[in-house]
Automatic annotation (TrEMBL), chain A:
Listed GO biological process terms: transmembrane transport
Annotated region described as Disordered, given as residue ranges: 1-55
Localization per record: Cell membrane
Protein name: Sugar ABC transporter permease
Biased composition (Pro residues): 1-12
GO cellular component terms listed in the entry, alphabetical order: plasma membrane
Superkingdom in the source lineage: Bacteria
KW Translocase (keyword) present: no
Lineage: Bacteria, Bacillati, Actinomycetota, Actinomycetes, Micrococcales
Keyword Transmembrane belongs to the record: yes
UniProt xrefs under Pfam families: BPD_transp_1
From TrEMBL, chain B:
PANTHER family in the cross-refs: ABC TRANSPORTER PERMEASE PROTEIN, DIACETYLCHITOBIOSE UPTAKE SYSTEM PERMEASE PROTEIN NGCF
InterPro entries according to UniProt: ABC_transporter_permease, MetI-like, MetI-like_sf
Keywords: Cell membrane, Membrane, Transmembrane, Transmembrane helix, Transport
Origin organism lineage: Bacteria, Bacillati, Actinomycetota, Actinomycetes, Micrococcales
Pfam families assigned to the protein according to its UniProt record, in alphabetical order: BPD_transp_1
Keyword set includes Transmembrane helix: yes
Intracellular or extracellular location(s): Cell membrane
Family annotation (Gene3D superfamilies): MetI-like
Family statement: Belongs to the binding-protein-dependent transport system permease family.
CC per GO annotation: plasma membrane
Name the UniProt record assigns to this protein: Sugar ABC transporter permease
Transmembrane regions: 20-45, 88-109, 121-142, 177-198, 218-241, 248-270, 282-301
Membrane topology annotation: Multi-pass membrane protein
Length: 340, 310
């Protein structure tokens, strides 16, 4: 079995955050791959011929190739900056521009000075601070429930392997084929009246946290990673008297930091982006996260203040991306984890 | 993998509960608990419930079986053909906007010598922006007044102001343009990964045969990418079939139902009416959509299987 065998990426998260056209991201780091990537990174930094592409070194020496490729690279860079970063730069500008200027001359560069007050007004008067805190609490809980289910489940299916593991794995995999749409209404009714306890999780953070844990995709990812850990280490630990809990906590988890990092980062970002599910479950505005709150304050808020609120909401995901860039790109790139 | 089985699987000896506990049965169950509970309540149960509910009518207090009534009602809804057409139109436009350009960009980016990381970081940046923020920002860009952001830019090149979201014909392409902005980076990164995986020997072989740059791209790269191209195609269809956020936040389905999509229709059935949702019809319609998507992902799974083993 190959380590890169693909996972069907429909990733029907129970938490509906369907972004149209968004390509579901399938990070699939394994220890071997990570080492390989690190080596590749080293190689490319010293610019050896190891990193081979369609245009060879000798091709590059030809003036026509050099000129046309060089030009198109510059053109591409300019297009990327204008198309991908341009809107965000505009957002940053609007966040500190007086509302009058935003409405009358959106493309002019600060004709009437800078309005830093937008930011403080958004943070205090529009209570972005509160929604920001809600967003963080929601992300933290969703992260915890995803990590808990994925690691214990992955450990069970990969290392402990009881007799029913095969059935369980099949049941988890099967949910990958069920698109998120199907779950929307029945999941809402389940949260409205939970089985056994008969309590409602509506207007409670648990209503967002718990369903977030049911991500088959995370379980499969972590299980694949555990499958590739060296069994000799487990065996040695057992000989030394480690029980299943000790093995999990002191051996398997510390060895799995790369995959836990990938799962964590995607859990946090997915929770930050989520809109429809928190909209349905958290009806009380005091509990709503930024993504749910922003559209409802849109009409009644001053444009400058709204833009400041939008900019504040974007800050954390962008900072996370800039800090963990490699993890993001590697994870997303393995989305096509198919040997061409 | 099979040899490890023997070493690590708990001893499988039929016997008393005590031998079951000694063999690790109890601790295995402890580790199974989070998965069983969370998946049971929030995944398996709702899936079963979806099927059951599509044949029922409920007002949350009393529930009755109505046979195929929900499906009949869904098919009788005059908005269903409109929503289907709009969703297909969205999917088609998303393919036209978001399919070829990322490919060209990725092929070019693969050849970048310096600051390679900068290119992919720039391309991926919009993907991490929260979708709600992106939509609200673009909604402002689409301001139909001549002072609107896009209309100002069009004014620089002498194009008259456009109505954008307020026009029946322009609303959907405007939605797709924003969706493409938000998603294209992910596609680029997938293509880049696939391009990196092309075995270098193939280039060497092509060079020995005297192939130039263009022929290497056309005869080596493109055939090697066939698999991933097909996969991104299916992924995009599955993603766009479930489009909700853009029509919901940009236009609410308007103008004159020009941007009502299937998921928006499902949302309206279930949550659009403050007097109580029509949950039966909502699940019936989502099941219909799901069957279509399941077929798509099954095709996808089959094909990736074949490609990964070959």
């Amino acid at each position: 079995m190959t380590t890169t065998s693909p996972i069907p990426p429909t990733t029907p998260r129970p938490v509906l955050g369907t972004v149209p056209g968004e390509v579901p991201v399938i990070p699939g780091a394994e220890p071997v791959g990570a080492a390989r990537a690190r080596r590749a990174r080293k190689a490319s930094s010293s610019d050896t011929t190891d990193d081979r592409s369609a245009v060879s070194v000798s091709d590059w020496r030809r003036p026509s190739v050099r000129w046309s490729l060089g030009t198109s690279h510059w053109l591409l860079l300019v297009l990327l900056v204008v198309w991908c970063v341009g809107p965000l730069l505009l957002l940053a500008k609007f966040a500190v521009t007086p509302t009058q200027d935003i409405l009358r001359t959106p493309m002019a560069i600060f004709p009437n000075g800078i309005a830093w007050s937008n930011l403080s007004e958004a943070w205090n008067d529009v209570q972005v601070s509160k929604y920001f805190a809600n967003t963080i609490v929601l992300a933290a809980g969703a992260w915890f429930s995803q990590i808990l289910v994925a690691t214990t489940g992955g450990y069970l299916l990969s290392v402990l392997r009881p007799r029913y593991a095969r059935v369980l794995q099949g049941a988890v995999l099967a949910t990958l084929f069920v698109p998120a749409v199907v779950l929307l209404v029945p999941l809402y009714l389940t949260v409205l009246d939970t089985p056994v306890f008969h309590t409602s999780l509506v207007n409670s953070f648990w209503g967002v946290w718990l369903p977030a844990g049911a991500s088959a995709f995370n379980v499969v990812l972590v299980q694949r990673f555990f499958d590739n850990l060296p069994r000799e280490v487990f065996e040695a630990a057992r000989v030394d008297g480690a029980g299943p809990y000790r093995l999990f906590w002191s051996i398997v988890l510390p060895m799995s930091k790369p995959i836990l990092g990938v799962v964590s980062i995607f859990a946090v970002i997915a929770s930050w982006k989520d809109f429809l599910w928190p909209l349905l479950v958290l009806r009380n505005p005091d509990l709503q996260p930024l993504s749910v709150r922003l559209p409802s304050i849109e009409a009644t808020t001053d444009k400058g203040v709204l833009m400041a609120a939008l900019a504040i909401s974007t800050l954390i995901p962008i900072v996370l991306f800039l800090v963990f860039q490699r993890m993001f790109l590697r994870g997303a790139g393995l989305g096509g984890a198919v040997k061409g | 993998m099979t040899t490890d089985d023997v070493v690590l699987a708990p001893r499988r000896r039929p016997g008393t509960p005590l031998t079951w506990v000694r063999g690790g049965g109890l601790s295995a169950l402890v580790f199974a608990l989070p998965l069983l509970v969370i998946f049971g309540v929030f995944s398996w149960l709702p899936i079963v419930r979806a099927v059951v509910m599509s044949f029922q009518k409920t007002n949350l207090i009393t529930t009755s079986w109505v046979g195929l009534q929900n499906f009949q009602n869904v098919f009788a809804d005059p908005l269903l053909p409109v929503a289907t057409r709009n969703t297909l139109w969205f999917a088609l436009l998303a393919l036209v906007f978001g399919y070829p350009i990322p490919l060209v960009a990725a092929v070019l980016m693969r050849e970048v010598r310096r600051a390679k990381g900068l290119y992919s970081a720039l391309a991926y940046l919009p993907v991490v922006v929260p979708p709600v923020v992106a939509v609200l920002l673009w909604k402002f860009f689409y301001d139909p007044r001549p002072e609107g952001v896009f209309n100002t830019i069009l004014g620089w090149v002498g194009v008259p102001p456009q109505p954008w979201l307020q026009s029946m014909t322009m609303a959907m392409p405007s939605l797709v343009l924003e969706a493409t902005w938000a998603a294209a980076g992910g596609t680029v990164v997938i293509y880049l990964a696939a391009l990196t995986a092309v075995p270098p020997e193939l280039y060497d072989a092509a060079e020995v045969d005297g192939a130039g740059v263009w022929r290497k791209v056309w005869h080596v790269l493109v055939p090697q990418l066939r698999g991933v191209l097909f996969i991104t195609l299916i992924l995009q269809v599955i993603g766009t079939a479930q489009v909700f956020l853009e029509p919901y936040l940009f236009t609410g389905g308007g103008p004159a139902n020009a941007t009502v999509t299937i998921l928006l229709l499902i949302y309206r059935y279930a949550f659009g009416n403050s007097l109580g949702g029509n949950y039966g019809e909502a699940t019936a319609l989502s099941l219909l959509l799901a069957v279509f998507l399941a077929v798509m992902s099954l095709v996808y799974f089959r094909l990736t299987r074949r490609w990964s083993t070959s």
